[in-house]
Amino acid sequence: MNTFGEILDQIQKYDRIIIHRHENPDPDALGSQLGLATSIRAAYPDKTVLLAGDSVGDLDWLSTMDQIEDQQYPGALVIVVDTANRPRISDQRYDQGACLIKIDHHPDVDPYGYLRYVNTSASSCSEIIGDLINSAGHRLCLTDQGARALYAGIVGDTGRFMYDATTSHTLALAAQLIGYRFDAPALNRHMGQITLNQAKLQGYVFEHLELAPNGAALTVIPAEILAKLELTQADAHAVVTTPGRLQGVLAWVIAVAKPEGGYRIHLRSKAVVINDLAALHDGGGHPLASGANAQDLVEVQQIFTQLQEKLLS
């Protein structure tokens, strides 16, 4: 693994920097991307710093993307944040620059990049970017906008500081960030809000939950339910943690129908490592929070069976 100093040297070297993140972004992807970008812009006003990626959906209150022409990549430094493997990088022009850096907190299953900084102990990629900025001295400058973005990323990926990866260091960094000028309580309330139809989908999850005696749980969300509630696959992310609120649920699967067919699998656990299971089904992620894919309901049931077997082992 490379050092913060080596990354800072490359940031100092290039006049044009393009920052990518993963597709279907969450607050951590956008927060780490924007937090890094604003700190570079503040320290180096003459540098061009651009944000690359697809639509941010209903997270446009946190960040928006830049329109980037192909000719802006040659000679540029490209930094990819919060993205474990290359197929998940949003905007596949990431490899068209002069130098590529990976900064991430997921297991390093795809060690791409000229430089790599991967810390799987960090609660979030936003925490890593906060540490990078704090280590930089005058070479990066944290702004109010950047602090807001990084705080949102940390809150999002720690489940409001409830997940196991939350450490005293995470909380200390969060305390530093809310010392900047932004409305942290309002941001927390905004991140906790769901629509009425998302609340109805949570009700559907509870109503149709299959719970095994060993604490494994499964809910399948069909396409017709999403259509009836006028929700997208991305909107369904609001219910991923829902089964974990139930006493006795130790690990669970939420299978969400994809528009093109098949199912997006959300795996969560409070007891056993599940990213190895996700890897068996075209996925991966954190030890206790991962994503995968299933071609049909047969594969969904296979994943649920394998999850039960992990809890019994």
What is the global morphology? Answer: globular
Task: Count up the domains.
Answer: 2
Strand content is 15-25%
**Unreliable segments (pLDDT under 50, ≥5 consecutive)?**
none
Helical run tally: 10
Question: How would you classify the helix and strand content by structural class?
Answer: alpha/beta
Total number of beta strands: 11
State the CATH topology of the largest domain: inorganic pyrophosphatase (n-terminal core)
User: Percent range for helical residues?
Assistant: 25-40%
Q: What's the arrangement of strands in the largest beta sheet?
A: 6-7-8-9-11-10
C-alpha-based Rg, rounded: 20 Å
What is the CATH homologous superfamily assignment of the largest domain? inorganic pyrophosphatase (n-terminal core)
List the secondary-structure elements in sequence, H or E: HEHEEEEHHHHHEEHEEHEEH
What kind of sheet is the major sheet? 6 strands, mixed
CATH class of the largest domain: Alpha Beta
* Overall mean confidence score, pLDDT: 95
Q: Give the N-to-C terminal Cα separation.
A: 33 Å
Domain DDH: 16-154
Protein name: Bifunctional oligoribonuclease/PAP phosphatase NrnA
Domain DHHA1: 228-309
Pfam family, one: DHH
Could you characterize the architecture of this molecule?
Residues 228-309 form the DHHA1 domain. This is Bifunctional oligoribonuclease/PAP phosphatase NrnA. It comes from Bombilactobacillus folatiphilus. Strand 1 (16-20), helix 2 (27-43) and strand 2 (48-51) form a beta-alpha-beta unit. Helix 2 (27-43) packs parallel to helix 3 (125-135). The longest helix has 17 residues, at 27-43. The chain is globular, with a radius of gyration of 20 Å. The mean pLDDT is 95. The protein folds into two domains: 4-191, inorganic pyrophosphatase (n-terminal core) (Alpha-Beta Complex); 196-312, Diaminopimelate Epimerase, Chain A, domain 1 (Roll). It has 313 residues and is α/β, with parallel strands linked by helices. It contains ten helices and eleven strands. It has a six-stranded mixed β-sheet, sandwiched between helices.
